């Protein structure tokens, strides 16, 4: 398709222009955007974003304009080119770990080095001996070994103990035989494995002297370092297209009795003595739990920012898009209404806007708690109880936060009306890439059992008097509930912020003891309680988020913010908490944490009033998240508001389908008559 | 990638095989699957499916195996080929309208003739005069004119009165000038327009003698019938890639003062007198309302079947997938548990299974009511009140049903665990194609205002004594509520099915009068009530679905089913109704339709018991939906249960990425060393 004719180029959007509307919105708000950004990300963090952005923006390979048009193979090829270039840049500029995280955020696309740079290196580092670091980690850090982490199998996901791949110790030649006994034993979904990796960390059942010692990690070469072809008796490849993540080569992997040397088993925690063939047991697993807690805290923190992308795009676009006049508006108020003024749009977007802050503060708090308790443990001054609490809590929070972010992105996409469906909205493809987060690092349903198990255990300890006050927060809220249970509670959720937190704590404690009764007294089966456990985990996680949001607003550095910004954050706290309370109303009144009348008032008055208070600051609040246009890659979410001009530009200048002239008649066998001006079928 | 080596080909899934597990499931159920299928679709309907399937399956062009791999242009090209072939087959075999619908269902992909075959032909037929039928409809039926329906604009969606495109009457030469005054006036999202159509029905503001008469339809040629190039002063093209629907060329369209003759304005309802330039007003719009009601009823009916695809796939796969042992299972019960046995899976899938039947019965009932009242109106024996009621109700139902189907598909996808994310699951791409349904034919939020407006109006009529008993169902439930309001209700929802229906009616009536009070007495603004209206519409629609499900079970032909099948359908009715009631618990107890205790019992006992009763029949119930494997196109949902074999086959034999050998090292500029054995970059 050629350049649009002159008369088309002369056209402008009608009515108030997008940039004017956004300028109006920004002028209307009294909050200090830069100050809030700094509060969220620190000055160093913001400077880092700017610095990395500048480097990436100037590299043609990171240009995003053709992302949505290509087929799978071309997209993968470009992603590989980007991964390579990013690695080169990281070396040139000496990127730190934090720099790399920011860079990946800006590129916003899973790449073929993804699993090499995360789980492969991490596992080698954490589970390898010094000798293995020399042999495997060193070439891996130099990208001579490029690896992946092969755990999940075609027939086995969540249940690691059910893995079928075996590693059998051969005493005679001091090797392990890696073998896939069935089709369902095939490794599956393994990122970076399909085409890229030449090594894999393979989780396999260790069999020593005929005895199964459970899953252990083995480093196995799978492709030739020169030709990159598969080694003998190894069969691996890409598993095919997915709902998203198509720039990543998730792969499958099968072994036909492949022998590897003794050093291949990562031996920091457990090992096989080469001389005797004796199996040496692993010590405590607490370090592993620690790193899982860390990973889950990252997911919670990221969930805030993932959701904030969608909210930024939708909030800006809904401030520019105008539909209908207000039905009650006076005659003299001409013109269509910004859709963000409709309460059905506000009720969808503004609680999500509040949620972005809630998740961000909770993720940050979790990391701080984690670091603090690790410190305490290292210095021998306790911290164990707190860490155990955080570990369990992190399971529930991972489940809730990733669910909230995924659902929220889709709500944002739909709030953009028809245009939300266009790839140029920038939400759909990003949502599709984010979705696996609800499944990995523990399936969101599976994980909630961990939380319930911990809460039941803690409740038993509280009832039996074994738990001590101040041991951790969960113990405290359970004790508090027991102490006040008979006199009941009368939380002033509409007048007092601390009472909101207390109401969430009350409901969580109520559900814990309720579940305990069913399990321990009524002897209900575990399976029949899973739905209750899911609800319990959600309730407890919501309590944790509400509590951390509230705590953030009482921290010393919060006072540095301007008064109007502080007040608005308090409103966002109430909006998040009360909206959640309203949606879970049924659980709040059955636990007697609040009355039916309070829920009705929350619904019909309090939330509506908060929407009205937050509305004028919506654009300023999303500005504080400080996303660059380059990162958002969205016509609808542009900071300059040139929505329609950009939609039109993308459709006309970037779209290869417009280079095709079709033959539209059913009886003609010709499909494309011309492609890019070249005749393909007869006219 | 070459054929897998011999040792790979010899591998089988471990444990009980998929086909064995499905056979077990089928043996376990006592219901008569064929009988239930016939009850749902009639014998004629089932035979039609079989007949059309046979025709399509034998045509290579409809082979689906490469659907997920190609880029946008290739996918569109193949879709065009399919549309052409389908048209040829329709002529060869003399396909009826119903045959075409079934064929499109089986192909399961939007195609470039989509809008030509629906809205273009429909508008010409319904809104054209006999002269216009001759001039436009005839060549359109012969596919010489290929058209689209151009209403939505870049800046204007739901608000048709806000369209910017103008059609100005020129008395001097008896023509209309079609013009796009701004960029936001560009037609946008118009299916079949981007590359395929040579004509468009253009909705434009009719301006006669300087006076704007509102939007009217004009038939405008946009491309040359020979060369298929754009005509002068017309600028049109494809709007670019979307979240789904990428086999359709949704387009944009701009006019630079294009003159069209008088006959171009579709003149059945309103027109401009060519001699005088006088504008002739349209008569009643009731016929248009009628066809909108029909379209919305179709969406409700389809929503059931759309959701049933996801439920079929997930139910079969969850019966084959096994993870973990049951925690309470005795030691001697070896092996992993089918995931459908976990209550967290059942609570997600089985209520959705019940919902598929609920939506199917409601859609069918709506169509029957529509036909009956049209009959009555034609014969002059009333039916108007019923039709007005159905029109309003259909808005709320379209909103609820499409929302339920879209959300439900995603729930099904996630219930498949990690493999749900693979395109081979068959759910993701289908979900992405279905999503626009929540926006088109009235945005799901916008539409709920129509329902509320109607309910408020009816409530006013009831209060003022103007409404008559038996006028329609809404009047009756409002009257009944008023009559019993003081004495209250005591519905036995856990013991009596009619009482469940009554509880839903009660809540709907309560919310109606509650909203009326706010609007009429408290004089609340329309905008501040939109959220309440949304809830009201949902409540009323849920009532309608519950009522129609219950009615279906009392119809004469229901008695023809075997007793066990009948009992199971009653269980499904209760599962749908009680699960909905539990989720909306808050509204049910504030309306005093039920007590808090009843909701607690529903949650903890009744629903869990229903899950247990339905569980053994899950596979048989989805079998009754009678989807062919060809239509489902899903490795996970295969009727023969060969899930893992098929996942593996697709990944290894269909996947073009596996033909590529990459250069994985960051310092090499070579990306692909070999493609399909041919050297591309130096080794």
TrEMBL record, chains A, B:
GO terms for biological process: fatty acid beta-oxidation using acyl-CoA oxidase; lipid homeostasis. Residues 148-258 form the Acyl-CoA oxidase/dehydrogenase middle domain. This is Acyl-coenzyme A oxidase. It comes from the Eukaryota. Residues 498-664 form the Acyl-CoA oxidase C-terminal domain. Coiled coil: none annotated. It comes from Piedraia hortae CBS 480.64. GO terms for cellular component: peroxisome. Belongs to the acyl-CoA oxidase family. Its cofactor is FAD. The active site is at residue 441.
């Amino acid at each position: 398709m050629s350049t649009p004719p002159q008369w088309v180029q002369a056209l402008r959007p009608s009515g108030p222009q997008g940039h004017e509307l956004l300028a109006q919105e920004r002028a209307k708000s009294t909050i200090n955007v830069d100050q809030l950004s700094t509060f969220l990300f620190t000055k160093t963090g913001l400077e880092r974003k700017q610095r990395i952005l500048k480097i990436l923006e100037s590299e043609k390979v990171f240009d995003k304009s053709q992302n949505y048009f290509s087929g799978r193979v071309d997209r993968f090829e470009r992603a590989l080119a980007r991964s390579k270039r990013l690695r080169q840049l990281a070396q040139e500029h000496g990127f730190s770990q934090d720099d790399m995280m920011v860079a990946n955020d800006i590129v916003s696309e899973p790449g073929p080095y993804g699993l090499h740079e995360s789980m492969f290196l991490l596992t080698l580092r954490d589970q390898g001996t010094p000798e293995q670091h020399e042999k495997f980690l060193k070439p891996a850090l130099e990208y001579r070994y490029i690896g992946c982490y092969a755990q999940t199998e075609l027939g086995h996901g969540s249940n690691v103990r059910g893995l079928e791949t075996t590693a059998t110790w051969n005493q005679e030649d001091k090797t392990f035989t890696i073998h896939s006994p069935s089709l369902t034993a095939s490794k599956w979904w393994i990122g970076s494995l399909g085409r890229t990796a030449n090594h894999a960390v393979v989780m396999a059942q260790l069999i020593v002297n005929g005895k199964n010692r459970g899953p252990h990690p083995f480093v196995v070469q799978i492709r030739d370092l020169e030709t990159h072809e598969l080694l003998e008796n190894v069969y691996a490849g890409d598993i095919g297209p997915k709902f998203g993540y198509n720039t990543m080569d998730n792969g499958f992997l099968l072994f036909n009795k492949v022998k590897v040397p003794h050093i291949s088993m990562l031996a920091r925690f457990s090992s096989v003595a080469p001389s005797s063939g004796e199996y040496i047991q692993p010590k405590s697993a607490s370090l592993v739990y620690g790193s899982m807690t860390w990973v889950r805290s990252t997911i919670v923190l990221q969930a805030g920012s993932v959701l904030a992308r969608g909210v930024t795009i939708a909030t800006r676009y809904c401030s520019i898009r105008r539909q209908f006049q207000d039905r009650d508006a006076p005659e003299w108020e001409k013109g269509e209404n910004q859709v963000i003024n409709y309460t059905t749009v506000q009720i969808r977007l503004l609680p999500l806007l509040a949620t972005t802050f809630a998740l961000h503060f909770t993720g940050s708090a979790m990391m701080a708690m984690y670091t603090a308790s690790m410190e305490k443990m290292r210095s021998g001054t306790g911290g164990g109880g707190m860490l155990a609490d955080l570990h369990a809590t992190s399971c529930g929070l991972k489940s809730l936060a990733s669910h909230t972010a995924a659902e929220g992105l889709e709500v944002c996409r739909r709030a953009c009306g028809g245009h939300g469906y266009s790839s140029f909205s920038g939400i759909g493809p990003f949502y599709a890439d984010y979705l696996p987060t609800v499944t990995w690092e523990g399936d969101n349903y599976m994980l909630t059992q961990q939380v319930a198990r911990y809460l039941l255990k803690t409740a038993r300890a509280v009832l039996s008097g074994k738990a001590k006050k101040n041991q951790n927060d969960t113990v405290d809220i359970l004790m508090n509930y027991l102490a006040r249970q008979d006199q009941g509670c009368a939380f002033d959720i509409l007048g007092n912020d601390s009472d909101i937190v207390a109401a969430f704590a009350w409901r969580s404690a109520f559900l814990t003891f309720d579940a305990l009764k069913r399990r321990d007294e009524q002897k209900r089966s575990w399976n029949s309680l899973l739905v209750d456990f899911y609800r319990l985990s959600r309730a407890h996680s919501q309590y944790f988020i509400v509590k951390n949001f509230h705590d953030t607003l009482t921290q010393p550095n919060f006072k540095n913010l301007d008064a109007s910004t502080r007040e608005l954050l308090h409103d966002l706290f109430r909006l998040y908490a009360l909206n959640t309370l309203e949606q879970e109303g049924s659980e709040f009144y059955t636990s007697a944490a609040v009355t039916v009348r309070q829920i009705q008032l929350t619904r019909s008055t309090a939330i509506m009033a908060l929407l009205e208070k937050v509305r004028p600051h919506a654009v300023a609040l999303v500005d504080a998240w400080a996303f660059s246009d380059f990162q958002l890659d969205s016509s609808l979410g542009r900071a300059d508001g040139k929505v329609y001009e950009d939609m039109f530009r993308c459709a006309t200048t970037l779209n290869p389908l417009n280079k095709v002239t079709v033959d539209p008649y059913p009886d003609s066998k010709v499909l494309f008559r011309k492609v890019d001006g070249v005749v393909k079928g007869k006219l």
